[in-house]
Write a structure and sequence with these properties.
Layout: H1 2-18, E1 20-22, E2 28-30, E3 34-36, E4 41-43, H2 45-49, E5 59-61, E6 66-70, E7 73-75, E8 143-153, E9 160-163, E10 168-172, E11 177-180, E12 185-188, E13 197-204, E14 209-216, E15 219-225, E16 230-232, E17 235-236, E18 245-249, E19 254-259, E20 262-269, E21 272-280, E22 288-293, E23 298-303, E24 308-312, E25 317-319, E26 331-335, E27 340-344, E28 355-359, E29 364-370, E30 378-382, E31 387-391, E32 394-395, E33 402-403, E34 407-411, E35 414-417, E36 428-432, E37 437-441, E38 447-450, E39 454-458, E40 467-471, E41 476-480, E42 484-488, E43 492-497, E44 501-507, E45 512-517, E46 520-525, E47 532-536, E48 544-548, E49 553-558, E50 561-566, E51 569-572, E52 581-586, E53 591-596, E54 604-609, E55 612-618, E56 625-630, E57 636-641, E58 645-654, H3 682-685
Parallel strand pairs: 17-21
Antiparallel strand pairs: 1-2, 3-4, 5-6, 6-7, 8-58, 9-10, 10-11, 11-12, 13-14, 14-15, 15-16, 18-19, 19-20, 20-21, 22-23, 23-24, 24-25, 26-27, 27-28, 28-29, 30-31, 31-34, 32-33, 34-35, 36-37, 37-38, 38-39, 40-41, 41-42, 42-43, 44-45, 45-46, 46-47, 48-49, 49-50, 50-51, 52-53, 53-54, 54-55, 56-57, ...
Length: about 700
């Protein structure tokens, strides 16, 4: 029986084969149809005869339909005819999606094809597999995230307090929170409340909070720092008009304040801040400096105006002894290791002081310890490191006191400095692709590179207000000083003389530095030392320009609005953001970014991508902008002022997708590409790979 079944099956198979026509490409066509090898399918005989001798696109007629000729076969135009026509990415001969070709043939159903395939879970598709450009390597949207890095410390204001719970000095500028760890500065992404001015700060040891008092219009503001974020307190009671000094009193568990000839307490709890004014002060508050004497349980105030030293026991003021002799601008701190209140530094009419004095309960005695001369320093005791920290202050100078930016440790009798490498002034910025660093050239101390911290590259610098531009072919940073182009090696060396220029940018298509002068636009090739004219004439007005990697045009903004050098012709854009803007190249997204120079909170950022403008978000806080540049992985870095100095405010488009490690075999983001084949690795793989792209 079994043998009969096998024989029947073989006979049936032979019958089926007899009714199929085998094609050269392996397809078998049933009886009545012929092979269409051009489209890997089968066709009626009249589909071929209808197009015999006719060119592609010619209308044709079969018994069943009217169509057009495609490679000698009459087919119905459109999706599912196995011909990839204009507007289609694929055509597999059906209207079924999920098989590598969408039902409408407009997508080959892969991320990076420029078509959003919602059925596959794509939220975006910008035509590439690069992340940090708004649409990540897996075609999911990216959101802008702002971070803050400390760049240049210029001033350490008295609005500072030591966070004992976290072992950090906390200093607030306008809204940026600066943190000193004992060895280095960092900044928090948490912004302090917006005020007109911060006045004083004190550390509440019991609640482990820093209490910060500022002024907004005519009202006082109380904010608290818990180590990670700021909250603004709801207040009750009658606040004083202003506050000159504040110190935490652990006996009464309240911030003790001095203001306009009065003193009082600022009690804090979960419900908010309660102001209480106690009585008039018997001394001049504006020149007084205070600390809590833990050994004696009293507040100590040294009146530099000559009113002596006063102590407060929570109820009564008592005058005991004289103030630190000849001192003004001295700073008081309780040193738990010594068990004494110290008076550090200060000034007399002639010079800043170096003394460290100790309060005995009846007088100020010289400890014989000495510090670099300064007045109005910020001081604190770090119990974990057993040192008294000293930051900033000032020294007398002609016209106005000179601010100091150094940080010291006073350990017993020894002063230990913490030197910090940083530029002496602001300057032009440019991104160095080979160093993966921002380069800044100031006119006081030299040229520096930033990649999380400053490194001095050279003690030399170009002339003041020089413009920096990076040449990726030379692999060198260049500077234009008003008449010449200089190249940075161990020092800045002359490279070429060019016409006086308003803006410079590197042209990745022409492979050279573009410069725009009042007589025309010129190119300094990366392989030459002389420029050539590429476009006569120039737009009016001072320009800030950048190269658009997407359109290969120079885009500039000035008094005439937004203008564009395409080829050898300048055109004026019909649109320009309102207000003073600067522009920078965004290589990661092949676009131009427009950044408001005022830096006002809420000021709008703009992007020009593919020639189209769109708003991309607001500035998170106010401050004057000194420089703008794009770093690696699409990070827009803005050098912006803050009350303490300057920070790098960085904006990056991010998602939950991990960044590529760019090792040859690891595909960290899961997009199917690894190493230099992944467009996220173009900077790590350059110069072997082209800029802002990928290579096998």
């Amino acid at each position: 029986m079994r043998g009969w079944l096998i024989g029947a099956a073989l006979l049936l198979a032979g019958c089926i084969e007899d009714h199929l026509a085998r094609c050269d490409d392996g397809i078998a066509c049933p009886a009545g149809l012929v092979c269409d090898t051009a489209h890997h399918g089968c066709a009626a005989p009249d589909q071929l005869t209808a197009c015999a001798g006719l060119a592609d696109g010619t209308a044709c007629q079969t018994a069943a339909f009217t169509g057009a000729c495609f490679s000698g076969v009459c087919l119905v135009p459109g999706c599912a005819n196995r011909v990839v026509e204009p507007g289609e990415q694929c055509d597999d001969g059906n209207h079924v999606g999920g098989d590598g070709c969408s039902a409408d043939c407009r997508s080959d159903e892969r991320c990076g094809n420029g078509v959003v395939d919602g059925t596959l879970g794509e939220a975006c598709d910008d035509g590439n597999l690069a992340s940090h450009d708004g649409c990540n390597s897996r075609c999911q949207l990216e959101a802008p995230a702002w971070t803050i890095e400390p760049a240049v410390v210029q001033n350490i204001p008295s609005t500072a307090a030591f966070d004992e719970a976290h072992g950090q000095l906390v200093v607030v500028g306008r809204r940026v929170t600066w943190l000193w760890s004992g060895t280095a500065w960092s900044t928090s992404s948490a912004l302090a409340p917006e005020v007109d001015q911060w006045l004083v700060a004190a550390y509440d040891r019991d609640r482990m909070r820093i209490v910060l008092v500022g002024k907004r219009a005519s009202a006082l503001v109380v904010a608290e720092w818990d180590g990670t974020s700021w909250t603004e307190d709801v207040q009750s009671g009658t606040a004083p008009v202003s506050v000159y000094n504040a110190v935490y009193d652990p006996v009464h568990r309240a911030v003790f304040w001095l203001s306009n000839g009065y003193y009082g307490t600022l009690a804090l709890d979960a419900s908010g801040a309660r102001w209480t004014t106690v009585d008039a002060l018997p001394f001049l508050v504006g020149a007084a400096h205070a600390a809590f004497d833990e050994a004696r349980g009293t507040v100590v105030v040294a009146d530099a105006s000559g009113g002596g030293t006063w102590i407060f026991n929570g109820t009564t003021w008592t005058s005991i002894g004289t103030s630190p002799a000849g001192h003004d601008g001295h700073a008081l701190v309780y040193d738990a290791d010594r068990g004494q209140v110290l008076s550090i530094g200060g000034a007399d009419p002639n010079a800043a002081r170096t003394e460290v004095l100790a309060w005995t309960g009846t007088s100020w005695d010289d400890t014989r310890a000495r510090i670099p001369a300064r007045a109005n320093a910020v001081v604190w005791h770090d119990a974990s490191r057993h040192v008294v920290g000293i930051a900033g202050g000032s020294t007398p100078s002609a016209g106005a006191p000179l601010p100091l930016t150094d940080v010291l440790d006073l350990a017993g009798m020894t002063t230990v400095p913490h030197p910090i490498v940083q530029p002496g002034a602001s300057g032009s910025l440019a991104y160095d692709l080979a160093r993966d660093a921002i380069v800044l050239a100031d006119t006081t101390s030299g040229t520096y590179a930033w990649n999380g911290s400053w490194q001095q590259l050279s003690t030399t610098h170009p002339a003041q207000y020089a413009t920096l531009v990076y040449d990726p072919v030379r692999r060198a940073m260049l500077a234009y000083d008003g008449s010449s182009v200089l190249e940075l090696a161990a020092s800045w060396q002359p490279l070429a003389t060019i016409s006086p220029s308003q803006t410079l940018a590197y042209d990745f298509q022409r492979r050279g530095v573009l410069s725009v002068s009042n007589v025309g636009s010129f190119l300094l090739p990366s392989t030459a030392t002389a420029q050539s004219l590429i476009a006569p004439g120039t737009p009016q007005g001072t320009l800030s320009g950048a190269y658009d990697l997407g359109t290969h045009d120079l885009v500039a903004i000035g008094t005439a609005g937004v203008v564009e050098l395409s080829g050898d012709q300048w055109t004026t854009s019909a649109f320009a953001p309102v207000g003073p803007y600067t522009v920078t190249s965004a290589l990661q997204s092949a676009s131009i970014l427009f950044v408001p120079l005022s830096g006002n909170a809420g000021a709008q950022l703009w992007e020009r991508r593919g020639g189209a403008f769109r708003e991309i978000g607001e500035m998170p806080f106010a401050g004057s902008i000194y420089g703008v540049v794009e770093r690696s992985r699409g990070r827009l870095a803005l050098e912006i002022t803050d009350g303490v100095g300057e920070v790098f405010l960085e904006r990056q488009l991010t998602s939950s997708l991990p960044d590529e490690t760019c090792t040859p075999t690891e595909d960290a983001d899961g997009d199917g590409a690894a190493g230099c084949a992944d467009p996220d690795c173009w900077q790590a793989c350059w110069p072997a790979c082209p800029l802002a792209t990928s290579c096998p």
